Amino acid sequence: xxxxxxxxxxxxxxxxxxxxxxxxxxxxxxxxxxxxxxxxxxxxxxxxxxxxxxxxxxxxxxxxxxxxxxxxxxxxxxxxxxxxxxxxxxxxxxxxxxxxxxxxxxxxxxxxxxxxxxxxxxxxxxxxxxxxxxxxxxxxxxxxxxxxxxxxxxxxxxxxxxxxxxxxxxxxxxxxxxxxxxxxxxxxxxxxxxxxxxxxxxxxxxxxxxxxxxxxxxxxxxxxxxxxxxxxxxxxxxxxxxxxxxxxxxxxxxxxxxxxxxxxxxxxxxxxxxxxxxxxxxxxxxxxxxxxxxxxxxxxxxxxxxxxxxxxxxxxxxxxxxxxxxxxxxxxxxxxxxxxxxxxxxxxxxxxxxxxxxxxxxxxxxxxxxxxxxxxxxxxxxxxxxxxxxxxxxxxxxxxxxxxxxxxxxxxxxxxxxxxxxxxxx
Length: 426
Fold this sequence. Notes:
Number of domains: 2
Organism: Apiospora kogelbergensis
GO molecular function, one term: serine-type endopeptidase activity
Number of helices: 9
Low-confidence stretches: 1-24, 73-86, 135-142
Shape: globular
Strand content: 15-25%
Order of helices and strands: HEHEEHEEHEEHEEHEEHEEEEEEHH
CATH architecture of the largest domain: 3-Layer(aba) Sandwich
Distance between the termini: 48 Å
Pfam families: Peptidase_S8
Largest sheet: 7 strands, antiparallel
Family: Belongs to the peptidase S8 family.
Mean pLDDT: 83
Structural class: alpha/beta
CATH topology of the largest domain: Rossmann fold
């Protein structure tokens, strides 16, 4: 179906703002969007998803609708034809038929209403701003998080313990870190980290100018601070220097990662995606996570740092995501900031976690952002040491290893799992 509306899945069609900058990003009354109560709205930016059962003819007709709308903007001086880029479109998203849509920038409400009325369209959403789920902190002790996931009991304040792990250490597995980028030249990555994609500038320069992404990547797979010390790491930059991004940009980064895994690297069954990102629940994000999972790629996400039910957060609330809450490794208490609820699958250390920094040294963060990469690292270990490839099998194995320790989250919230992630070397 994707070939109907573009020649390649990853093609960037056009980045044009069709209205003045500085517009008040407030909901437009009576606009036909599926999330009318959204906050932190990106001005004039929308995410459109086609119906999964849309026919070939319906998609062809939809293409004509888009071209007709593009023709309404002659001041842009851009030709409109079956082979030209429409000024109304940015990127198409396509993870098989499960998620097929595009990022739209429209000049007025009438344009959005017309697209929303297209019978091939399932929904139109406001695009909203997104940030990560980690905060810089300070801690004297360094490797408590690593030690905790290879032991059955919480750590004492005086003894961080040892980190025990299988010697395969994630070798042959690649973890895609969708975040603020990675400082790939950090010596602790030992040359195993590489640039992937930058959805903000639409290029391959995914250098981290914030620090969050490098910290997360280090927890996954750096030599000193990492869970899977031989895994490869790929930077997918979707957050800027101030740690903000948009859902449209994040979905674009997810599309790139999925394409890289499935088509360029052909590494389905040997790749994991980590997303330490949080925002209010957005159906398009959850649908994208589920589509990637269904294509054979496990997606590990943070629960969020709002100390509320994670079912209201994306991508934490995605049905197929491995959603990770945070504990303090010293006492196994639920971190006071960690989200909770039935969508949380497992907890992992997320308080005062030391890891790599984008300036070449170390950084210490607290957040479910730091808990998630512990579990992404465990997923890489299991794929490498046990040969697991199916996302559901990996999630089930993470669950069973956590259950085997007998440990449980303390000071937790009712109706939330008490499982604490473990790599099997308890």
